[in-house]
Design brief:
This protein is of the alpha/beta class. It has one domain: NAD(P)-binding Rossmann-like Domain (Rossmann fold, 3-Layer(aba) Sandwich), CATH 3.40.50.720. It is built from ten helices and seven strands. α4 runs parallel beside α5. The structure holds NADP nicotinamide-adenine-dinucleotide phosphate. NADP nicotinamide-adenine-dinucleotide phosphate binds next to α2.
C-alpha cells in the first residue's frame, strides 16, 4: 500500500515536472521566435546585394517589370548598380520604365516583351536569346495574376483559372529553368553568388476562399521555391520566396497606403533591406515576410489561430465575401 502510494506520488511529481518543462519550453520558443521577428525586421541588416555582384557589370532579370512591384524591383536593382533585363507583356510600358531607369542610373537594360499566359516556346526562346552570354546573377520571379474580383471557385471563368496557373506557375517554372542555369554558371565563373526571388503572397500563406485558384498557385510557389533552395544551395545560389500582404498596385486595386499596405517602393526596399532574413516567416526555410507589419501579422496568425485553421478560413471567407459584394455593386453602378 505504502509502495503503491509512493509510486503514485512519484508519477504525479514527474508529470508535474514534465508539464512545467513543456510549458516553459513552449513559452521560451515562442518568445525567442517573436524576438527573432523583431530583430529581423527592425534591427539586423540583411545580406548586401554586393554579394550578388552589384556594381560589377552583372545582370538581373525581372519579370512583370513594367508596373507595380516588378517596376520597383527594376528601379531598385538598377539603383544598386545591376544591369536589368525587363520582361513583361506590354512593350510601350517596358519602354517607359527603360527610359526612367536610363535617366536615373548608369546601367544597361534589355527588354523582352512576352505574354506569359500564352506559355509559348517562341517567347521562352526569345528570353533565352536575350540573356545568352550575359553574366546574370539575379532573377526576380515577380510576374503574377490574381482573380479580377473574389469569385467562388465553381464560377471562376476557365480563362481566368488557366491564366492564373499558367502565369504564376508554368511560366515562372519555365523562366527559372532558362535563367537559373545562367546564374549558376555566372556564380561559378565569376566567384560570386546568385539570387532567385519569387513573389509569394498571404493568399498562398492562408488558404483563401473566393481566391481559391490564386491561393493554390501561390501555395505551390512556396513548396517549389523552398525545394529549389535546397537544390541550388551547393551552387551558391540563394533562393527565397518573398511573402507579402497587400501592396498598392493595379492588381490590388488599392491606391492609398497605410501601415499594413505599403507602396511598391516601400515594399521592395524592405525586401532588399532584409535579404536572407525571415522576418515574419520564422518557421519557413528560404522564405521571408519582410515588410514590418506583414511580418508581425504573419507571425501572430501562425502562432495563434494558425494558417490552416477553421477560424482563419472563416475570417478570410467573410472578408472576401464582403470584397466581392462591394465589387459587384460597383460594377452594377457603372453599368447604370
Ligand atoms: N499587389 C499586391 O497586393 C500583392 C500582394 C501579394 C503578392 N503580390 C504579388 O506580387 C507580384 C506583382 O504584383 P503587382 O501588384 O505588382 O501586379 P501589377 O501591378 O498588376 O503588375 C503586374 C506586372 O506583371 C505583368 N504581367 C501581367 N500579366 C502578364 C502576362 N500575361 N505576361 C507578362 N507579363 C504580365 C504586367 O505587365 P503589363 O503591365 O504589360 O501587363 C506588370 O508589369 C505578383 O506575383 C503578385 O501575385 C502582390
Amino acid at each position: 500500500m505504502t509502495l503503491a502510494l509512493e509510486f503514485e506520488s512519484k508519477t504525479v511529481t514527474a508529470l508535474v515536472y514534465l508539464s512545467v518543462f513543456t510549458g516553459a519550453y513552449k513559452i521560451i520558443t515562442v518568445v525567442l521566435g517573436y524576438l527573432s521577428v523583431l530583430l529581423d525586421v527592425f534591427v539586423l541588416p540583411g545580406v548586401s546585394l554586393n554579394k550578388y555582384g552589384a556594381k560589377k557589370g552583372h545582370w538581373a532579370v525581372v519579370t512583370g517589370a513594367s508596373d507595380g512591384i516588378g517596376k520597383e524591383y527594376t528601379l531598385q536593382l538598377a539603383k544598386r548598380g545591376f544591369n536589368v533585363v525587363l520582361v513583361s507583356r506590354t512593350l510601350s510600358k517596358l519602354e517607359s520604365v527603360q527610359t526612367e531607369v536610363q535617366s536615373k542610373y548608369n546601367v544597361e537594360t534589355k527588354l523582352v516583351s512576352f505574354d506569359a499566359s500564352l506559355d509559348s516556346e517562341e517567347s521562352y526562346q526569345e528570353l533565352a536569346d536575350a540573356i545568352a552570354g550575359l553574366p546574370v546573377t539575379v532573377l526576380v520571379n515577380n510576374v503574377g495574376q490574381s482573380h479580377s474580383i473574389p469569385v467562388p471557385f465553381l464560377e471562376t471563368p476557365i480563362k481566368e483559372l488557366k491564366d492564373i496557373i499558367t502565369i504564376n506557375n508554368t511560366a515562372t517554372l519555365r523562366i527559372t529553368q532558362i535563367v537559373a542555369p545562367v546564374i549558376v554558371t555566372t556564380a561559378r565563373q565569376k566567384k560570386t553568388r546568385g539570387l532567385i526571388l519569387t513573389m509569394g503572397s498571404f493568399g498562398g500563406l492562408l488558404p483563401t476562399p473566393l481566391l481559391a485558384t490564386y491561393s493554390g498557385s501561390k501555395a505551390f510557389l512556396q513548396s517549389w521555391s523552398s525545394a529549389l533552395a535546397g537544390e541550388l544551395k551547393s551552387d551558391n545560389v540563394d533562393v527565397e520566396l518573398v511573402i507579402s500582404y497587400l501592396v498598392t498596385s493595379a492588381m490590388s486595386k488599392i491606391r492609398r497606403t497605410s501601415a499594413s499596405i505599403p507602396s511598391p517602393k516601400a515594399f521592395v526596399a524592405s525586401v532588399f533591406k532584409s535579404l536572407g532574413r525571415r522576418g515574419g516567416a520564422q518557421e519557413r526555410y528560404a522564405t521571408s515576410t519582410p515588410f514590418w507589419s506583414h511580418a508581425l501579422m504573419h507571425w501572430w496568425i501562425e502562432n495563434t489561430v494558425g494558417v490552416y485553421s477553421a477560424v482563419a478560413n472563416t475570417l478570410n471567407l467573410n472578408m472576401h465575401q464582403s470584397i466581392r459584394a462591394r465589387a459587384l455593386k460597383k460594377a452594377a453602378s457603372k453599368k447604370e
